[in-house]
Amino acid sequence: MCNPFFCNLYLGFITALGVGTIVVSLLPVFQNPEFRTVRACLFFGMGLSGVAPILHKLVLFWDEPAALHTTGYEVLMGTLYGLGALVYATRIPERWMPGMFDIAGHSHQLFHILVVAGAYTHYRAGLVYLKWRDLEGC
């Protein structure tokens, strides 16, 4: 927020990735099984897109406790999103026991649970950021 150039740069990257992911998720041509890996890679790429801003924050604010606190949340968030993409792409657990997870525990369901957990950790990091901004300002 205090540096509009980097704010717009990072928001521009995540917006472009988000739009690309939405397009690939909604266009019927990408619903074919051969594009499953492409869809998973886009979700995974969205998770990895946070690495540059996190490293940038750590370089600038390495001595701030809030920077380390939010980094912990962000690492957890990225792990949850990455696990979600991995589960989705590999079709675990139904790959190991076909038919056993048709109603509950299917990889797509697990993917959504992991994404919601990642979004919750994102929310928690946001609360720390807001408190930090209110206390420190620019």
Form type: elongated
Q: Would you tell me the structural class of the helices and strands? A: mainly alpha
Task: Give the H and E element order.
Answer: HHHHH
Distance between the termini: 8 Å
Mean pLDDT across residues? 89
Poorly predicted sequence stretches spanning 5 or more consecutive residues: none
What integer value in Å does the Rg equal? 17 Å
The proportion of residues forming helix, as a percent range, comes to over 70%
Main sheet characteristics: none
The fraction of residues in strands falls at under 5%
The beta-strand count equals 0
Number of helices: 5
General description of the model:
The structure is a single chain. It is elongated and about 55 Å long. It is an all-alpha fold and 138 residues long. Helix 2 (36-48) runs antiparallel to helix 4 (65-90). It has helices spanning 4-26, 36-48, 51-60, 65-90, 107-136.
